[in-house]
Protein backbone atom coordinates (compact mmCIF):
# COMPACT_ATOMS: atom_id res chain seq x y z
CA UNK A 1 0.00 0.00 0.00
CA UNK A 2 2.80 2.38 0.87
CA UNK A 3 4.59 1.49 -2.33
CA UNK A 4 1.53 2.28 -4.39
CA UNK A 5 1.16 5.66 -2.70
CA UNK A 6 4.81 6.45 -3.37
CA UNK A 7 4.48 5.57 -7.05
CA UNK A 8 1.35 7.69 -7.34
CA UNK A 9 3.02 10.64 -5.65
CA UNK A 10 6.16 10.38 -7.78
CA UNK A 11 4.13 10.01 -10.97
CA UNK A 12 2.11 13.11 -10.08
CA UNK A 13 5.25 15.09 -9.37
CA UNK A 14 6.93 14.02 -12.58
CA UNK A 15 3.78 14.79 -14.52
CA UNK A 16 3.61 18.21 -12.92
CA UNK A 17 7.29 18.79 -13.63
CA UNK A 18 6.89 17.81 -17.26
CA UNK A 19 3.90 20.08 -17.61
CA UNK A 20 5.80 22.95 -16.08
CA UNK A 21 8.79 22.26 -18.28
CA UNK A 22 6.63 22.31 -21.38
CA UNK A 23 5.15 25.59 -20.21
CA UNK A 24 8.59 27.17 -19.81
CA UNK A 25 9.72 25.72 -23.11
CA UNK A 26 6.80 27.49 -24.75
CA UNK A 27 7.67 30.72 -22.95
CA UNK A 28 11.31 30.38 -23.95
CA UNK A 29 10.48 29.79 -27.61
CA UNK A 30 8.19 32.86 -27.73
CA UNK A 31 10.31 35.11 -25.56
CA UNK A 32 10.62 38.70 -26.81
CA UNK A 33 11.69 42.02 -25.38
CA UNK A 34 8.73 43.86 -23.93
CA UNK A 35 8.07 47.51 -24.74
CA UNK A 36 10.27 49.71 -22.59
CA UNK A 37 12.11 46.71 -21.12
CA UNK A 38 15.80 47.31 -20.52
CA UNK A 39 18.48 44.96 -21.81
CA UNK A 40 19.46 44.12 -18.26
CA UNK A 41 15.94 43.01 -17.35
CA UNK A 42 15.69 41.12 -20.63
CA UNK A 43 18.91 39.23 -19.87
CA UNK A 44 17.64 38.20 -16.44
CA UNK A 45 14.35 37.03 -17.94
CA UNK A 46 16.14 34.96 -20.58
CA UNK A 47 18.37 33.36 -17.94
CA UNK A 48 15.49 32.55 -15.58
CA UNK A 49 13.19 30.99 -18.21
CA UNK A 50 16.06 29.03 -19.82
CA UNK A 51 16.93 27.35 -16.50
CA UNK A 52 13.28 26.40 -15.98
CA UNK A 53 12.75 25.23 -19.56
CA UNK A 54 15.98 23.17 -19.69
CA UNK A 55 16.60 21.97 -16.15
CA UNK A 56 18.66 18.98 -17.29
CA UNK A 57 21.16 20.97 -19.37
CA UNK A 58 24.75 21.08 -18.25
CA UNK A 59 26.04 24.49 -17.12
CA UNK A 60 28.12 24.90 -20.26
CA UNK A 61 25.26 24.05 -22.62
CA UNK A 62 22.86 26.19 -20.63
CA UNK A 63 25.27 29.13 -20.76
CA UNK A 64 25.56 28.88 -24.54
CA UNK A 65 21.77 28.55 -24.85
CA UNK A 66 21.20 31.69 -22.78
CA UNK A 67 23.74 33.71 -24.78
CA UNK A 68 22.28 32.64 -28.12
CA UNK A 69 18.72 33.37 -26.99
CA UNK A 70 19.68 36.80 -25.68
CA UNK A 71 21.38 37.70 -28.96
CA UNK A 72 18.30 36.50 -30.85
CA UNK A 73 15.81 38.75 -29.02
CA UNK A 74 17.75 42.00 -28.65
CA UNK A 75 17.06 44.81 -31.18
CA UNK A 76 18.64 44.29 -34.57
CA UNK A 77 20.75 47.47 -34.46
CA UNK A 78 22.14 46.43 -31.06
CA UNK A 79 22.90 42.93 -32.36
CA UNK A 80 24.79 44.33 -35.38
CA UNK A 81 26.98 46.53 -33.20
CA UNK A 82 27.49 43.78 -30.64
CA UNK A 83 28.39 41.30 -33.36
CA UNK A 84 31.15 43.64 -34.53
CA UNK A 85 32.44 44.03 -30.97
CA UNK A 86 32.56 40.25 -30.46
CA UNK A 87 33.75 39.36 -33.95
CA UNK A 88 37.19 38.11 -32.90
CA UNK A 89 36.04 36.47 -29.65
CA UNK A 90 34.79 32.99 -28.84
CA UNK A 91 31.24 33.35 -27.56
CA UNK A 92 31.70 30.43 -25.19
CA UNK A 93 34.58 32.17 -23.41
CA UNK A 94 32.87 35.53 -22.98
CA UNK A 95 30.86 35.79 -19.75
CA UNK A 96 27.17 36.46 -20.21
CA UNK A 97 27.43 39.51 -17.96
CA UNK A 98 30.07 40.94 -20.29
CA UNK A 99 27.82 40.46 -23.30
CA UNK A 100 24.94 42.22 -21.53
CA UNK A 101 27.22 45.11 -20.52
CA UNK A 102 28.48 45.55 -24.09
CA UNK A 103 24.91 45.48 -25.38
CA UNK A 104 23.93 48.28 -22.99
CA UNK A 105 26.90 50.37 -24.09
CA UNK A 106 26.21 50.08 -27.80
CA UNK A 107 22.51 50.75 -27.25
CA UNK A 108 23.00 53.91 -25.21
CA UNK A 109 22.90 56.74 -27.72
CA UNK A 110 25.77 59.13 -27.47
CA UNK A 111 24.86 62.68 -26.74
CA UNK A 112 25.04 64.53 -29.97
CA UNK A 113 26.37 68.04 -29.87
CA UNK A 114 24.06 70.02 -32.06
CA UNK A 115 25.63 73.22 -33.23
CA UNK A 116 22.96 75.67 -34.14
CA UNK A 117 24.24 78.30 -36.48
CA UNK A 118 23.19 81.69 -35.32
CA UNK A 119 21.03 83.24 -37.96
CA UNK A 120 22.65 86.20 -39.58
CA UNK A 121 21.17 89.46 -38.51
CA UNK A 122 18.79 90.82 -41.05
CA UNK A 123 20.12 93.68 -43.08
CA UNK A 124 19.14 96.78 -41.23
CA UNK A 125 18.28 99.70 -43.38
CA UNK A 126 18.91 102.88 -41.50
CA UNK A 127 16.15 105.26 -42.29
CA UNK A 128 17.41 108.77 -41.92
CA UNK A 129 14.58 111.18 -41.44
CA UNK A 130 14.42 113.61 -44.25
CA UNK A 131 15.47 117.00 -43.01
CA UNK A 132 12.82 119.60 -42.98
CA UNK A 133 14.80 121.50 -45.48
CA UNK A 134 18.01 120.71 -47.26
CA UNK A 135 19.73 124.01 -47.16
CA UNK A 136 20.70 124.75 -50.68
CA UNK A 137 20.96 128.43 -50.10
CA UNK A 138 20.53 130.55 -47.03
CA UNK A 139 18.51 133.60 -47.88
CA UNK A 140 18.04 136.51 -45.54
CA UNK A 141 14.58 137.91 -45.02
CA UNK A 142 15.79 141.38 -44.21
CA UNK A 143 14.51 144.07 -46.58
CA UNK A 144 16.77 144.99 -49.49
CA UNK A 145 19.15 142.16 -48.65
CA UNK A 146 19.21 141.06 -52.24
CA UNK A 147 17.58 137.70 -51.49
CA UNK A 148 14.25 138.76 -52.94
CA UNK A 149 14.65 139.68 -56.60
CA UNK A 150 14.26 143.43 -57.06
CA UNK A 151 11.76 144.83 -59.48
CA UNK A 152 13.13 146.05 -62.78
CA UNK A 153 11.24 148.70 -64.67
CA UNK A 154 10.16 147.50 -68.10
CA UNK A 155 10.55 151.05 -69.44
CA UNK A 156 14.01 152.10 -68.30
CA UNK A 157 15.31 148.68 -67.14
CA UNK A 158 16.42 150.19 -63.85
CA UNK A 159 15.81 148.34 -60.60
CA UNK A 160 13.78 149.53 -57.65
CA UNK A 161 10.54 150.50 -59.38
CA UNK A 162 8.09 149.43 -62.05
CA UNK A 163 6.68 151.19 -65.12
CA UNK A 164 3.80 152.84 -63.25
CA UNK A 165 6.22 154.71 -60.98
CA UNK A 166 9.01 155.27 -63.50
CA UNK A 167 10.18 158.90 -63.35
CA UNK A 168 11.50 158.68 -66.90
CA UNK A 169 8.05 157.74 -68.14
CA UNK A 170 6.19 159.94 -65.64
CA UNK A 171 8.34 163.03 -64.94
CA UNK A 172 5.61 164.54 -62.79
CA UNK A 173 6.20 161.81 -60.22
CA UNK A 174 9.76 162.92 -59.66
CA UNK A 175 9.88 164.99 -56.42
CA UNK A 176 10.99 168.59 -56.81
CA UNK A 177 13.73 170.04 -54.60
CA UNK A 178 13.70 173.49 -52.99
CA UNK A 179 16.68 175.72 -52.68
CA UNK A 180 18.06 173.99 -49.61
CA UNK A 181 17.87 170.60 -51.30
CA UNK A 182 14.87 169.32 -49.34
CA UNK A 183 11.83 167.80 -51.00
CA UNK A 184 8.88 170.17 -51.23
CA UNK A 185 5.47 169.43 -49.79
CA UNK A 186 3.52 167.30 -52.26
CA UNK A 187 6.60 166.07 -54.05
CA UNK A 188 7.87 164.64 -50.78
CA UNK A 189 4.50 162.99 -50.20
CA UNK A 190 4.53 161.49 -53.70
CA UNK A 191 8.05 160.16 -53.14
CA UNK A 192 7.06 158.50 -49.89
CA UNK A 193 3.92 157.16 -51.53
CA UNK A 194 5.94 155.74 -54.42
CA UNK A 195 8.43 154.17 -52.01
CA UNK A 196 5.61 152.46 -50.13
CA UNK A 197 4.22 151.20 -53.44
CA UNK A 198 7.64 149.92 -54.50
CA UNK A 199 8.12 148.17 -51.17
CA UNK A 200 4.68 146.58 -51.44
CA UNK A 201 5.50 145.36 -54.95
CA UNK A 202 8.78 143.91 -53.69
CA UNK A 203 6.98 142.09 -50.89
CA UNK A 204 4.39 140.66 -53.30
CA UNK A 205 7.09 139.53 -55.69
CA UNK A 206 9.05 138.06 -52.81
CA UNK A 207 5.99 136.13 -51.61
CA UNK A 208 5.39 134.75 -55.12
CA UNK A 209 9.04 133.80 -55.38
CA UNK A 210 8.94 131.96 -52.03
CA UNK A 211 5.71 130.15 -52.91
CA UNK A 212 6.72 129.12 -56.45
CA UNK A 213 10.14 127.82 -55.36
CA UNK A 214 8.80 126.00 -52.26
CA UNK A 215 10.97 127.81 -49.77
CA UNK A 216 10.52 127.27 -46.04
CA UNK A 217 10.77 130.34 -43.83
CA UNK A 218 13.10 129.93 -40.87
CA UNK A 219 11.77 132.72 -38.66
CA UNK A 220 14.22 132.03 -35.84
CA UNK A 221 17.26 132.62 -38.04
CA UNK A 222 15.57 134.97 -40.51
CA UNK A 223 16.40 132.72 -43.44
CA UNK A 224 14.75 130.99 -46.35
CA UNK A 225 15.50 127.29 -46.63
CA UNK A 226 14.96 125.72 -50.01
CA UNK A 227 13.60 122.17 -50.04
CA UNK A 228 15.37 119.84 -52.47
Taking all Cα atoms into account, the compactness measure Rg is 59 Å
What's the main sheet like? 3 strands, antiparallel
Q: Helix tally?
A: 6
> Roughly how much helix do the residues carry, as a percent range?
40-55%
Low-confidence spans = 132-148
Give the tally of β-strands: 3
Instruction: Note the run of SSEs as H and E.
Output: HHHHHEHEE
Strand content: under 5%
Name the overall outline. Answer: rod-shaped
Number of structural domains: 2
For the record, give the distance between the C-alpha atoms at the N and C termini, rounded to a whole number: 132 Å
| Strands in their spatial order, largest beta sheet | 1-3-2
Could you report the average pLDDT, rounded to the nearest whole number?
72
Structural class estimated from helices and strands: mainly alpha
Structural features, described:
With 228 residues, this protein is mostly helical. The protein has two domains: 14-107; 138-175 and 194-226, no CATH class. 47% of the residues lie in helices and 5% in strands. It is built from six helices and three strands. It has helices at residues 2-29, 39-53, 59-73, 76-85, 96-107, 185-212, and strands at residues 138-140, 215-218, 223-226. The protein has a three-stranded antiparallel β-sheet. A hairpin with a 4-residue loop joins strand 2 and strand 3 (223-226). Helix 4 (76-85) crosses helix 5. The termini are far apart.
Amino acid sequence: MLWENLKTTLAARFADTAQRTNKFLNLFDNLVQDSGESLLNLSMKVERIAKQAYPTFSPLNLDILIKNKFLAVIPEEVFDKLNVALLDKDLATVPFEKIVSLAEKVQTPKTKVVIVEVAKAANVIAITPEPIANVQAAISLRPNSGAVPRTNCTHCNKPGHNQTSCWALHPNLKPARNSNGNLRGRGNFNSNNNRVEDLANELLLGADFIRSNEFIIDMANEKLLKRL
